[in-house]
Structures are given as structure tokens and as C-alpha cells.
Amino acid sequence: MTNRVVIVGGGAAGWLTAGILAAKNGEKSGCTHPVRIELVESPNVKNLMVGEGTWPTMRDTLRQIGISEKDFMQFCNAGFKQASKFVGWQYGNGEHYYHPFTAPAGYGAVNLSQYFLKNRPGSDFETLVCAQGAVCEQSLAPKTLATPEFAFALNYGYHLNAGKFTEMLRLHCTQELGVVHTTGHVEQVNGAPDGDIASVTLSDGRVIEGDLFIDCSGFKALLLNGFYNVPMVCRRDQLFNDAALALQVPYRDEHAPVASATVATAQKHGWIWDIALSGRRGIGHVFSRQYCSADQAQDALMQYVKNDPHLDASNAEPRLITFEPGHRSVFWHRNCVAIGVSAGFVEPLEATALVLVEKSVEWISHQFPRCRNAMTVLAKRYNEITHSRWEEIIDFIKLHYVLSSRDDSEYWRAHRDASSVPQSLKDSLALWQTQPPWLYESDRRLELFSSASKQYVLMGMQSTFGEACTGLSQHEMRVADKALNDVLRSTEQLLNGLPTNREFLSRLAGAVKKDCRATA
To answer: Distance between alpha carbon 362 and the CA centroid of its chain, in Å?
Structure first.
């Protein structure tokens, strides 16, 4: 029987893993065969702490593990993320488009990208088919304070303080979910006679035994790489970026607007992320050291910050992060699973780091190996699914570069070179030449990026893909006309009825303080 799960490494990946597993399979979960979940965390290791944007999946994760949205937003200084805004990706002239979290109107009944290509080319696709881009342009929230927790007028994820999020998860897991927290530095991994991991030895001599070991130890991957020597599959030939300079910059004015979208602004040799929290912004320059020095990247980053009148850059000191873009050749070997950075890491263009943790642990929690024989079968299936997800992530990130017409550096020209484009993406691009993405081209059960996401990027980049499509039937045209009229009405209503992000967060903080005084 699998009775003991040992997670090596903390951070958001480790504690999310602990929380999701404990809520479903832990000693306080109420399940028939609960397992002991222990997280071993070194006091000497600093976590990466760069991922501050989540997908809408995080709402379900918080609900499932029992964290109140109101408490989460206050504790983690969180704001709403409704979309990604891409600036300068097509030509480098300040043009932009949104990739919203809300699907196009009528999605599932009609493919509005076909209507767009035949009837409205040159206009803004996301504005035509969804109200969310217009809402984000005004920095509005996706809901009002009267809206129940996790419910919405427009689909959303979060911007959050990664350090605070990790702290909240640790407190919740240990106090509410029964996770055992052991502080200590793993000095040795001990094998069993059959080749499994039997235990880990800490620097103070303590031995932690387990049946299933989960490696959340970051880039070092102490278990999967350090013990089993499972190699990285480098993907630098497709995704060139291998470094980032990260900043945390306060506002000059506490009433400055709080953006509703993660902004990704293309640069000569990379791109800059911009994530708004209530008290500061997280900003960073992702770049390729093959095409750009750290000094050049820092100059571009600091210029970006100084050009924003809402930011106080007086004490800004960028932190350099380097990484090898890629993933492990396998993710589950014998009784060891790597999750988070231990499994792989690529540039955070579509904020895939945390959602991949969520999806991975969700699968394991529902397919939990109750015995060692089951583990072998599940490991094979998990590796197939996870490898497919990594290919999907790489294809989708690469899509943003392939569609660009920027010609201001070798960096952008190389991204369009056919030798750097995965065959799977080439196949999709060939298909989309005659028909835009739609529901039926893939297995939607396990995919990360829906056809709606692909439509937003393709149409947002003003591509000509799908121009040869047959268009819509008369019935579909009637459905499309109604959907587009609904978008016009809902856009007007939402722009007039939603508070700004800043207003929502300020009122939420006031409501929490009032509740605290009432219960004191």
C-alpha cells in the first residue's frame, strides 16, 4: 500500500502539491484510505518566486483545498487577471491585442473567427467577439463585491504575491489539511534494493521514509535528476529565451490604476512582463543570452519602468535569473514524480508554470497509486500526458513568435526560421491556412490551450490564416449575428456596471477590516 507521500521542496509548487493531494487523499480528507503527506523544506534554499500570474483554474484549486477567496486576495495582495495583453508583437509599433480568459460569444455553437475573416478583417477580433478586452482597457474588475466568491461576470484568474501565496499555502496545509512540515536540508537520497527511493537523509541525520516521493526541489531536481539522473530535454532550438531580469516596483500613488491583464511588451531581443498587484507591480525582461547581454536587457527594462509615470523606480534593483528552457525526458520514474521547475521550465509568456502544477497534481490525486504495481502503469500514462502537455506549451508559445512580422533584430528573424518551428506546430499552421482553429480539431479533455485561445492569438496578430475557409451557413450566420449583438450589449453594461480593480480591492480591504473588528 502507498501510505506515505514525501514532497521534497517547498515554494508554490511544493505547497500546491501538498494542498491538492491532502484535500483529496490526506489524513483529514475523509477518504477511505488516507495517506500521510510530509513536506521536507530546506531553510537554506530560496525559492524562485517569479510566477505571479495564474489561470482561472486557480479558483477551482482554492475552492477544492478550502481557502476563502476573500482571505486569499487579502493575504496575497492579489488582484484579478482577466487576460494577457500583447504589445508590439506584430510590428513593434505599439499595436496590441488581448488574449482574454472569456471565450468568444456563442463559443460551441458557432466559430466566430470564420465570420471575422469573411466579414470584418482588419478590426479587433477580441473586441468583436468578447467584452473582456474593453473591460481590461479600463482596468475594471471582472465582478462586483456583491458577486459570490469565485463567481464572475467575466472569467478570471489572479495576479498575486508569490511569496505570500507560498506562506498562505503552508499555513493552510499544516493547520487545516494535516500536512506534516519538516524543515531540513536533504543531504542524501537512499535507494531501496528494487531501485525505488526508500528515504531521504537530512543534514542533521534524520531519515524521512516514504512510498511515493514528489520532487519539487527546483532546477536541481534532487530526486529525479540527482538520484535517477533523468536528463533535461533542451528546447532552446525552439524557444531561445534563457534568462530574465526581475523587478518589484512600487506605485508613486496609492490610487494608481491596477491593470486587469498581464502585459507582455515585445522588445528587440525578448519581451517584458508587467503584472499589477494592489501595492506594486512585478516587472521583468525575458531575453536570450545568445542575442542580448544582461546589460542590454537591463537598459531596456529600466527604460520601460522609467517611462511609466505611475511607478517609482528610484530603488529598483533587477535580479538576474538564468534557466535552460526545456523539460525532463520523463517526469515519473519508479516511485518518484517531478512537479514544477524540477520537471521543466520555459519562459512565462502564457503563465503556464502554476497551471501545470495544478493539472499534474490533480491527475495524480484522482489516479492515486494505491499499490506499487499500479504505480508502474500510472507512471507510463502520466509521462505520456505530461509530455503531450509540454509539446502543447512549446507550440503555443512559439506561435506568438512565428506570427510576428518584426524585422528589427536577428532574434525575431531566427524565431521565424523554419528550422526552429516544431513539426507539430507546422502541421497546425498548415491546417489553419484553410480553416481557423475550432473545437473538433483536438482532444479537449486534456488540452491546456483551447481553440478559443488559438483564435485570439491568430486573429490578434492579424494573420491571414483561414481566409480560404468556406464561411458560415445561413443558420450559423443568424447565430453569429445574435452573438455579436449580445457582445455589444454586454460590453456597454459591463463598462457601466463594474468597479475598477483599484475600487474593488480597496472596498474588499475595508470589508475585511470591518469583519475583523466585528469578530474581535
So the answer is: 15
